[in-house]
Design a protein that fits this description.
Layout (H helix, E strand, L loop, with lengths): L2 H9 L4 H14 L9 E6 L32 E3 L3 E7 L5 E9 L3 E3 L7 H7 E3 L22 E5 L1 H8 L3 E7 L8 E11 L7 E5 L4 E5 L21 E2 L2 E7 L4 E7 L8 E7 L3 H26 L14
Parallel strand pairs: 1-2, 11-12
Antiparallel strand pairs: 1-15, 3-4, 4-7, 5-6, 7-14, 8-13, 8-15, 9-10, 9-11, 9-14
Helix pairs in contact: 2-5
Length: 313
């Protein structure tokens, strides 16, 4: 029996729209994967210069894949100590349309070397100044007290191009010390075209407190959301925020015990998993077949069997 015969048995006198719905549902069920989620990765290198720094010793090559498993990507943007708005490529090597402006007191390195892509990501970092924040309005990203910080804008258009409505942000953090320094990290809603005069509004995320008690050894360790105060700070080398939708965000830091370094960050488009698409297709298939059964029952006709497709609906 071919597909047309099966469709005829299933639908009989059903409308062509139902037949099309069925085909679409089966197609959805056959999905075995989707295109990899695009990401925008920034790797801060140990270099005092401004802007893009692809020639630095700890710069990542375009084909080098680095990052937390499940989020790792190629085509990182290698940036120096500070920069005016700079457009960023995404993990496919395409100009994303999103840009970042950033600043720090200086750069330094964790001492883990450059033998692997992940070591390159975790060696250079933006350093802090040891001063308490000065979040006056308008906010100045160039103020020494607010460093290191970064202002990302232009994400809505990039997200739409990925077929995504939201994104995650990963912040990588590992300094050169191991005595348990604590840094505070969060994302805040901000707007404006001048990094030195931004308008601030509400926080986009909770505040996470990361403790730095060990240098990167090849394993990524997440600082959990429960680490929301100095007293509950947890050892780790990356922070994850999910479910974000703002077109712009300001990455904020506060050094609680001397340092709050940023080694890099990623913005990852949140797209449906293959399993979600399959469930969606199954739901559509169930709807179509249920509709056919109801039509048959109303007309006093026996409902077509579905066992020939291996379905138990």
């Amino acid at each position: 029996m071919n597909l047309n015969d099966t469709l005829a048995i299933l639908f009989g006198g059903a409308s062509s729209l139902s037949r099309k719905s069925f085909i679409a549902a089966v197609a959805a069920l056959s999905v075995t994967g989707v295109a990899s989620a695009a990401a925008i990765g920034v790797n801060y290198v140990d270099n005092g210069n401004d802007g893009v720094q692809n020639g630095a010793a700890d710069a990542l090559g375009s084909a080098e894949v680095a990052g937390v498993p499940g989020y790792a990507q190629p085509n990182w943007n290698n940036l120096g100590r500070w920069g005016n708005p700079t457009f960023l490529n995404d993990s496919f090597g395409v100009v994303s349309g999103a840009s970042v402006a950033w600043d720090s007191a200086n750069t330094w390195n964790s001492g883990v070397g450059t033998s692997t892509p992940n070591n390159k990501l975790m060696t250079g970092y933006l350093d802090a100044t040891g001063q308490p924040n000065n979040p006056a309005s308008p906010y100045s990203g160039w103020d020494n007290a607010n460093k290191p910080d970064a202002y990302v804008t232009g994400l809505s258009g990039w997200l739409a191009g990925q077929g995504a409505l939201s994104y995650s942000v990963l912040i990588y953090t590992d300094g050169d010390a191991t005595e348990g320094r604590i840094g505070e990290y969060w994302l805040q809603n901000a707007s404006g075209s001048d990094f030195g005069a931004l308008t601030l509004s509400s926080d986009l995320t909770s505040h996470i407190f990361a403790k730095d008690s060990a240098n990167f050894s090849g394993t990524f360790i997440q600082v959990p959301g429960t680490a929301n105060s100095v007293g509950t700070a947890v050892d780790g080398n990356y922070i994850l925020f999910t479910g974000l939708t703002a077109d712009s965000f300001l990455m904020r830091t506060e050094e609680q015990t001397f340092r709050s370094q940023i080694n890099g960050f990623q913005i990852v488009a949140e797209v449906p998993e293959p399993g979600s698409l399959a469930l969606l297709g199954l739901g559509g298939l169930s709807f179509v077949l249920s509709r056919r059964r109801r039509c048959c029952a109303d007309a006093g006709v026996a409902s077509p069997a579905t066992t020939s497709l291996g379905l138990d609906l």
